[in-house]
Design brief:
It is globular, with a radius of gyration of 17 Å. Helix 1 (16-28) runs parallel beside helix 2 and helix 5 packs across helix 7. It has helices at 16-28, 48-55, 82-87, 98-103, 108-120, 133-138, 141-153, 158-163, 182-199, 202-207, 221-225, 242-250; strands spanning 4-9, 37-42, 61-65, 92-95, 124-129, 165-168, 209-213, 232-235. It is built from twelve helices and eight strands. It has one domain (4-250): TIM Barrel, CATH 3.20.20. 2-phosphoglycolic acid is lined by residues 9, 169, 174-175, 213-216, 234-238.
């Protein structure tokens, strides 16, 4: 079975102490994960080492950065490189979140650089794609996400593509409380898998975990995750409430 993943995206939330407490509460619930299940906490940079040591003893719980820079190193004040993350034993990194695309002008080609640097440093990218409302309303969402994959991922060899985690995040559903319907989620996830199958082969597409992101909550996670092509979620708001995120972890297939 493909890896089923509950990924928390804290964004720019919590103080250090609140973050520690949140992790203690979530891990204190002692949700035992099966071999094919995984929980990942994408936390702010200054909390990476604390989070890493919190999850160290836990089976299938990991830490992710929320971003890395698209250049290897150099005079980029305030930025963090994939190499730095690797040197801290961080093995996952969110790449191309829609908020970074929008507020930091990240383009598909910059994201291709980031993905390359992640792989060079043994970091699994959690690559985000997804369309804005205008594209959804125009009915061209399939084409839109296809271009995102093509321009950021399709230069990679099959083995790398197989190893990455994909997150479909319709921008109109992020932080809005408006979730894609089960049909919309399943249809898009199936589309993403078929695009990968066409570019590589079906066996590659079958192995990739595709997470749904956009107002995943404790009360809709089970239904969303039950879609055959939805392999868990990338969760913002609800990952900041321990009891809610615990329910989301429990909702994994
Ligand atoms: P949300 O955020 O769950 O608050 O909608 C999801 C995300 O942006 O990853």
């Amino acid at each position: 079975m493909r890896k089923q993943i509950a990924a928390a995206n804290w964004k720019m939330n919590t103080t250090f102490q609140q973050g520690e407490r949140l992790l203690d509460e979530i891990l204190g619930a002692e949700v035992a994960l099966a071999a094919h299940q995984h929980t990942i906490f994408a936390v702010p940079y200054p909390y990476l080492l604390m989070t890493r040591s919190e999850v160290e003893e836990e089976y299938n719980y990991s830490v992710a950065a929320q971003n890395c820079h698209h250049r290897k190193n150099g005079a980029y004040t305030g930025e963090v490189s994939a190499e730095m993350l690797h040197s801290m034993n961080i093995n996952y990194c969110v790449v191309g979140h829609s908020e970074r695309r929008e507020y930091n002008g990240e383009t598909n080609s910059m994201l291709a650089e980031k993905v390359n640097l992640c792989f060079e440093h043994y970091i699994t990218p959690i690559f985000c794609c997804g369309e804005p409302l205008s594209i959804r309303e125009a009915g061209t969402h399939n084409e839109f996400v296809t271009v995102q994959l093509k321009e950021s991922l399709f230069h990679l060899p099959a083995d790398s593509v197989k190893a990455l985690i994909l997150a479909y995040e319709p921008i109109w559903a992020i932080g809005t409380g408006k979730t894609a319907t089960i049909e919309q989620a399943q249809e898009m996830h199936r589309h993403l898998r078929s695009v990968i199958a066409a570019q590589y082969r079906a066996a590659v597409a079958d192995e990739i975990s595709i997470l749904y992101g956009g107002s995943v909550k404790a009360n809709n996670a089970k239904e969303l995750f039950s879609c055959p092509d939805v392999d868990g979620g990338l969760v913002g708001g609800a990952s900041l409430v321990a009891a809610d995120f615990v329910e989301i972890i429990k909702a994994l297939k």
